[in-house]
Structures
1.
Amino acid sequence: MPEPNDEQFEKYLKNFRPVDPEPLPVRTRKHAAGASSRSALAACAVACLAAVAVVVIVLPRNSQPTNDPTAAVPRDDARHDKIPTPALTRLALDDHAAFDQFMSDKFQTQFPSMQSAHSALRVLAKE
Amino acid sequence: MPPTDQSLPHIEGLYRQYGGALLLFAISICGESSRAQDAVHQVFLKLIETDGIKNALDPKAYLFASVRNSLLNDQKSRQRHVPIESDRLWFTPPDRDHAAEENLRRALQSLPDDQRQVVVLHIWGELTFSQVAEILSISANTAASRYRYALTKLREAMLVKENSNA
């Protein structure tokens, strides 16, 4: 390589670019703060959605109208046609036949079956 | 005085513009990349904290002088001389010529400290001899003469290395 003059040599040296320093810590902190605030925001959004879901799902069940005496009965009990005592009393006073029918049905659904030959009630009845 | 909304981008712009040259200058003083990095960061973090750059007549020279002062204070407290690291890249070489980068790095390492600092400030810091003189607390003539000596040695060292590789 021929010996360059000062100007050429300076130009050659300037082709080498100093390595950039690492980013300023303050920038990093800002990014970190931004990231944490974003995750906090996301957590808040999830919490809000959960709260809204609870309100939408749970409240309608608890706030059904209570005028109908059977309406407040839980679904499980409703399968057995359970009627609250005041309604039952009214039924007994107003329509005796219907009341008897209701009680017969109720008896069959809520007491153990006596159809089986070895049922406890049948055995007791024989004794 | 805390920085205003306008001054923070300005300081970050200075960091992007001069960060590389400041880091190289810091390495040429202390010899350690990590310490050099810390010194440059310290200077800029302090600037962000105090907005001190606003009062500087020559912001570029102010930055180089601040980095030098920071390192000199640190060196005084350590009271020991650390040999220059030889395994870390100082430059991004043209055409990914890493052999040339190593050649230049070794040639710079072979220079006396005062000459190396003048070369770095004038070539990669793009500072005039007057600015270099102010930063290093020497006369402009001394800065120019150190530069000429340094350039000659640098060229010789790099040519010797290239010829030995050829």
Note: The mean pLDDT of chain B is 88.
2.
Amino acid sequence: MGSEDPLKVLREKRREWERTTLKDSLKALPERSTAFTTTSFIPIERLYTPLEGPTFDPSKDLGMPGEYPFARGIHPTMYRGRLWTMRMFAGYGSAEDTNRRFKYLIAHGETGLSVAFDMPTLYGYDTDGPEAEGEFGTCGVAVSSLRDMDLLFSGIDVGAISTSMTINSPAAVIWAMYLVMAERRGIPWTKLRGTIQNDILKEYQAQKEWIFPPEPSMRLVVDTFEYGARKVPQWNTISISGYHIREAGATAGQELAFTLRNGIEYVQWGIERGLDVDEFAPRLSFFFNSHNDLFEEVAKYRAARRIWAREMRERFGAKNPRSWWLRFHTQTAGVSLTKQQPLNNIVRTTVQGLAAVLGGTQSLHTNSYDEAYQVPHEDAARIALRTQQILAHESGIANTIDPLGGSYFVEWLTDYMEDEAYRYFDRIDALGGVIPAIRKGFFQQEIANSAYRYQKEVEGRERIIVGVNDFVDPEEDTKVHPLRVTKASYNRQLARLRTIRGKRDKKKWERSLAALRKAAEGSENTMPSIVDAVRAEATLGEICDTLRDVFGTWEEPLLY
Amino acid sequence: MPKTIRVLVAKPGLDGHDRGAKVIARALRDAGMEVIYTGLRQSPDDIVAAAIEEDVDAIGLSCLSGAHMTLFPRVVRLLRKKGASDIVVAGGGIIPPEDVPKLKKAGLRGVFGPGTSLAEIVGFFEKAAGRSR
């Protein structure tokens, strides 16, 4: 029996390999580059062995699936028990247009709904507001009223399917519309399952669809936490999102760090409100990007689970294991899609979807190949959904839990990501926390710097993008199936708003908005009065104007 | 010494996607131009007023929300109305190919889609803005 330290033996063996086999090989065939890096600029070594991962202790750092620190996944059986939810982000034109798309996607096997709203809706304007001109339904569906919300889900059993809504500044209002829509259908709120994105911090940092200044915005967010915990217990009242941070140019490490630090900020605000952490933390959910660099993405998700579990248990003293779970949705990287040779995007999306599943995502949206042209045509959306179905049913990746766990490289990269996140936490804390850092433009500048660095590398052909800066097809003449929002949809929407404004009970409507104003001026939870205003058929724009009046609006620091 | 080219990089309408606009602003600056970035949510009126006030040679518009057919031509029309049609206007974003000739006809001198190199855009502004003076 040998008693020698196996790491010592390995170190010797590795040195020997470097002196002989490797040296000879490099002489005969030098490597393609002197430096290999991930999509996020992380330098990558030739080989990873246990020597590179001294902190990698399988029982402590990885744990078992469904157990702290959840590096291997939040569920004990992961996809052997249930596949991820196939949730395609969809929305364009009017509620009727998008309702047809939802039904199409459900008919083709999607298992959850996800609503994309148009720009006016995201900013809390009605379709007929002056700010909305030219923007109706172009990059999402217009929902200005309770009636729109009802039409959007016409013929769909909202008591049975879960619905995710990408809405932030006006999230409380859109959620209230969903709740009142269900109420009118006789579906109890306790049965409703879904998510509102409601992550305002990353709006200031990256997605930029803000209305109010940070403090009243955070108040609205915590209002929904409190209301949801008490009235809509199966609803995720926030989806803390790295997706848009990444799309705006951040690296994977910045996406991870900023998102989780934002998460910590929300928990702090909830606790400061007087909520018990275990009352609302189980309903916090996350949303990440999946870019092309497969291992980097997998490492990011694994690190995210571990950091969140630790912070929730150690920093906030959460007792409920569900408060420790980092549950997340993934969307493949829109920014990676090319206009050139667009069918290649199907392949990119496949790799990105693969990373999300290998990383243990709870739900997934796969982008359509035509998205560098337009909001997806249904044929392109169907192929994107089929991509997930092929991953789920043909590739074999869902057969075992965390199949990359234990890979020397992936474990090293997971540790690296985690360290990077904590380094950013320290920098953000030194700036006084998330909101002061937003006011100083810290996140915005970090993201802009990474975006520019990436673009310069593409420009210098240090990064090859197939069809864009290499393998270019000069004869290319690609056409995608066009998708256009019709004038008829727009006119119908305008007419609907006119009818609602003409027919509703004026007194009740006025009273509801006055009560909302009073609630907003005070310190009580605004959700009950927002719900009442929706019941009185106040429109999104009217409710948001009332809040704009009380809270004011936000101007961002200008930088590039 | 030739006068430094001044460019206004602007985000018209409600679109919040500012990655491209910021990257372009920086690339133009690194190429020696003076760049004024308007920030988000500017109306065509705001943009034209800023362009005249800042005495720019060119405007680069960025829109990824699909509202470009309403917003981009309006900027050109307003410039004409204000007697500032010497200011070159270009635009970029998620713009379906069939819109490109329509935008050019409306007076945009350049329309750039995803994947356009920075060198091409810098070259465009150097040439177009240089010629306009």
Note: The radius of gyration of chain B is 13 Å.
3.
Amino acid sequence: MNYPSWRAYRVWQRDRDVFFRMWKAEFIPYFVEPLVILTALGFGLGGFIGLVGQQNYLQFLTPGIVVAYAMFTATFECTYGSYIRMEMQRTFDAIVSTPLSIEDVITGEILWGATRSLMTSVAIILVALAFKVVPAPSVVLVPLVAVLTGLMFGSISMFFTSLAPAISSFNYFFTLFITPIYFFSGVFFPLSNLPPVFQTISSFLPLAPAVNLSRAFFYGEVHPGLLWDVAFLLLLTIAFFLASLVTMRRRLIK
Amino acid sequence: MPPVVEARNLVKKYQNLTAVDSINFQIEAGESFGFLGPNGAGKTSTIKMMGCVSPVSGGSLFVLGQDVTREPRAIKEKLGVVPQRENLDPDLTVGQNLIVYARYFNIPRPVAQARSKEVLELFNLQDRIKSPIATLSDGMKHRLLIARALINQPSILFLDEPTTGLDPQARLLVWQKLSYLQSQGITIVLSTHNMEEASQLCNRLIIMHLGKILAEGAPAEMVKKYVGKEVLELRLSTGEKPGFLEKLKQSGMDGAVSAEVGDTLYFFDRNPATLGNLTSLARQVVQRQATLEDVFFKLTGKALEE
């Protein structure tokens, strides 16, 4: 097994430079979509729902949307984004003929995905504040949860990308994996509303612990049980990160 | 001076296919060295192994005195690589492509900027520094690829099929620039299936076929050794070949034909006089200088480009 070096930072810089060259095309959609969701669901649907526990629906929804979009951002970056750079633009080929290794490239890509998650999460928190959602001071830790979420979904996505035979394969990834995760990880309703079997399944979906952490830090309800959520995120991140290093080398270095 | 590349019993295998079959060669500093052969000869595999991007399956390979399997990063630091398929970063402009690429080599930004200007001027691209890649012609992209490979001031420049797909004018420009670079002391290593490119650019080359080296030497010497000075081509009319060959046999010269493709017969190192009045039976008689193409034909019975 080959490990990445600090040179992964060079790939991160490359992705950052490209992003800021065309940030309008890249950033606006990720900003607008959560805005639409918070408005439509938070205000519109929320009017029907009334209180979830002690919170109105917008308050309940916001922390989940923050990490859900952290997931989407990193996932898009490390599926479609990385695949295009790898197969169509052959950017990875160009980079590995310099002193960088394929492991540096993969690591840089995932780190950039997580950085995008961080930016998305901050944007949504700011929108929520404008909507008069009142968080606890510990909300400053929520972007950190978004980074962890980004690293985890970036790694999972990169692993899938390393196995994807064609760009259309990502349709399966999104429909069969990301969409159910989005709806069944406690973003839109408390998992306790589900029948017990589904509750158990849901609590093992990778986004569920991120939603728990985000909600807890957003409203200052920190408790020791959250350590399990952190451990879950870290464990999954490390496992998929290492796996993607192996499978990407197998795919690209022949 | 020790050789800049030294391969011993070098092997490359892909599953069941042996692309490079235990070859030995050395490249000296300052040479312009070519790998000539048709598609599937093992040229690209060899170049990729030297560039430390494809693992060696057997034997040993040293580049700039270091083992490619042990010190890939240190070796790659000193290489320039021009790939067969264009892989410029389409998300960046011409200038940004060079700056970002320089960063992979830890070249400080002011140095990278100065060198970008230099290499763009060398390839007549200085006016395009702010252009997006998509606006460049194929010829310009090709020149930019070579310019990019020079950003770290490499000791060796590897080029895999450097002019494939270029129009003759663009090709000529690339050849001129490569000759200039060689005169500046850079070792040039290229693969090609174009014999004109090989004889124009390389002072020494290897002819490869199916993973093996068939011949090695300076282009002109190889032509002289394997073919001779001149080649006589007799182009016959359709259907007249059997009759002609029969007549040739009657004059006791049936061993004289070196090769035949369709209705054309090739006689290496002969002038028309030796064939006597037989030449009058041909539709067309061409007498020309022998080339590397003929050498390849002689060695394999096949044409280089088919």
Note: The first strand of chain B starts at residue 5 and ends at 14.
